[in-house]
Design goal:
alpha+beta, Rossmann fold, seven-stranded antiparallel sheet
Length: about 425
């Protein structure tokens, strides 16, 4: 009997594939395979059908690639039908209509499952009140078996919720292969987003095009935020436009706890850099002041000074302050990896009148003033950790090649740190 080799090959391939799938399922190797399903919703805008949140495009919020509930509704439901009873162990959700700001997103919600489409059971651990994340992985304590899975939303950030993508895995410990993403923290005290500090994001994406991001205001930056999966690669902290006596230091308590934990790589510029130094030295429990305050009373934060003065003005008036603005020269001290591709002296952008006098306890100075520059403490690094406080601005236009070099090197250092102990221990909130 003559055997058709092509038919034989297809049969052999299917047999091997079937054996591998059975073996893989028994060994947990199929945990990363998405569970296919059809999507429906209680309501949808014309450009935001339910199917858009299950089309395999995680990050697009554009027409056809995200579900958008109707504006003004009192609640919204989004449902997956798997076509048969299947196992559900974990979920990935990407929400919001903006690329990097939480906008038009579920605020208060939970997930529930059903086997018959009539009786629904809330999935333990999935109820979220006042969502703060664009990205979230929800892992069930134990897998459940169901045909339908439903997202129930009772309030939204904005007039409606937008869900960009939902992915379901069978195992509770499934991997999602989520791309690297970073936090940009706005510290300008007005809470308006997008805001100051988002300039870090195009710079970071210029060296890592697939990088994802979220910007948050200062009060949302805390260990509880960064402990949620998928965890960020690093955080970038913006500058500020007020002196430290004008700042509500309680807004910095979350940042203080993240810093004290020492688990998250950070790069802070200008006022953000000064803030990290002051948190390390003084914390948020004692009053904060500025050099203007110290004219009339004893200072409480001698670590922080101004470059100089033409005349002393009331707090908040900087017309008598010496500033450094525009391109200035700084010089490396030692051999820090973020400056490895740069000459000993290089040019960066400056815009400040305040400065840190010395390295706080546990930090070291990695860059100082170059020729013609007044500010001596140009960059600090926390010892043995990729946490940087730079007086200069890599996120500011003016020295693009230097900024790209520093950003690329910092992200590389952050990635190395993430591979180590940080990832395995980050979920232990008791460490903060």
């Amino acid at each position: 009997m003559e055997i058709d080799t092509r038919t034989f090959g297809r049969c052999a391939f299917q047999l091997v594939l079937g054996v591998l799938l059975i073996f893989g399922r028994s060994r947990g190797l199929a945990a990363s395979v998405p569970v296919p399903a059809a999507a429906t919703a209680s309501s949808a805008q014309p450009d935001g059908a339910a199917s858009g949140a299950a089309d395999g495009d995680r990050f697009s919020a554009g027409p056809g690639h995200s579900w958008r509930g109707m504006r003004g509704a009192t609640h919204w439901d989004w449902t997956l039908d798997f076509g048969h009873v299947t196992r559900i162990g974990s979920l990935l959700q990407v929400v919001g209509s903006h690329d990097f700001v939480l906008r038009d997103a579920p605020r208060d919600y939970w997930w529930e499952s059903s086997r018959d489409g009539r009786h629904w059971v809330e999935l333990p651990g999935t109820r979220i009140v006042n969502e703060r994340h664009l990205y979230r992985i929800l892992r069930l304590t134990h897998p459940v078996r169901a045909r339908w899975l439903r997202l129930r939303i009772t309030s939204a950030h904005g007039e409606f919720p937008c869900v960009r993508e939902v992915e379901v895995r069978e195992r509770t410990d499934a991997g999602f292969s989520f791309p690297e993403w970073v936090l940009a923290v706005n510290m300008t005290h007005d809470g308006v987003l997008p805001g100051h500090g988002h300039e870090f994001l195009p710079l970071a994406r210029s060296v890592r095009a697939e990088l994802q991001a979220q910007q948050v205001w200062l009060t949302d930056f805390d260990p509880e935020f960064v402990a949620v999966e998928p965890r960020p690669l690093a955080a970038f902290l913006s500058g500020t436009f007020k002196d430290w006596c004008e700042v509500d230091r309680t807004h910095w308590r979350g940042t203080e706890r993240v810093l004290n934990g020492g688990r998250l790589p950070m790069w802070a510029s200008c006022g953000g850099a000064q803030g990290l130094a002051l948190l390390s030295e003084y914390g948020t429990e004692q009053p904060w002041d500025c050099p203007h305050c110290r004219v009339e009373k004893a200072g409480v934060m001698p670590l922080y000074t101004h470059i100089g003065h033409f005349a002393f003005q009331p707090c908040g008036d900087y017309s008598g302050c010496v500033f450094e603005r525009g391109p200035h020269r700084v010089r490396q001290l030692g051999d820090d990896p973020v400056f490895r591709a740069l000459p000993e002296e290089f040019v960066v952008m400056e815009s400040h009148c305040g400065q840190i006098e010395r390295a706080p306890t546990g930090w070291e100075i990695t860059a100082t003033a170059g020729a013609g520059t007044l500010t001596r403490t140009q960059c600090l690094r926390r010892k043995d950790r990729p946490i940087y406080a730079a007086q200069f601005h890599i996120e500011m236009a003016g020295t693009p090649e230097v900024s790209r070099s520093i950003m690329a090197a910092f992200l590389e250092e952050a990635g190395k740190w993430q591979i180590g102990d940080w990832r395995s221990g980050f979920g232990d909130r008791a460490q903060y």
